[in-house]
Specification:
The protein has helices spanning 2-7, 23-30, 82-94, 146-150, 181-195; strands at residues 36-46, 50-57, 68-69, 72-74, 101-106, 110-111, 116-125, 138-145, 156-162, 165-174, 177-179. With 197 residues, it is of the alpha+beta class. It has one domain: Nucleoside Triphosphate Pyrophosphohydrolase (Alpha-Beta Complex), CATH 3.90.79. The strands form 2 sheets. Strands 1, 2, 3, 4, 5, 6, 7 and 8 form an 8-stranded mixed beta sheet that branches. A 3-stranded antiparallel beta sheet has the order 9-10-11.
Length: 197
Amino acid sequence: MMQTLQRALRPLSQPPLPPGWNHAEMTELIGEVERRSAAVLIGVRDEQQLRMVFTVRTDHLSSHAGQVAFPGGSADPTDADALTTALRETEEEIGLNPTLVTPLGYLDCFETISGFCITPVVARIDAEARFHPAPDEVAEVFEVPLAFFVDPSNVKRYTMNFRGHRREMVEFQYEGRRIWGATAAILMNLLQRMEQP
């Protein structure tokens, strides 16, 4: 499955540029406000099977408290690029040493209701890597087999209303954890790219 995953990615030499693939929908919902740059790390551990790394945000955070997310966050002015942002934020959040990360490529940019344009960076995480969550940001780090997301029976679709607009949403339920919102949308972008010949 690693080869299928790698074929689905934008190469490291061609990082995606804004706007996000969902720009039209976000413009309808939040207008033409400037999107702030952010990046997340979609970490994959390649052992007996490919497993993706997620965090659970602590309950006391001012935004997205208790939600499942990929490690990552806002770009700093000193960050050279999205890869730098993703590695720096991941090290801050879960203590992952960047030397144990091998970047593989990118997914398409994605815009959020909160006004960010996220660049997802996909990378292989060394099997020996250990996580040390920052207790003020991350309550838990867990892994989910990529095969779980590839199985269409695990995708739950629903419609929600946001400021009078109907939005088609997806989510996944894995061992009692709800994976939804931007994280689920980014996963769907990966799955769609993996299905392309």
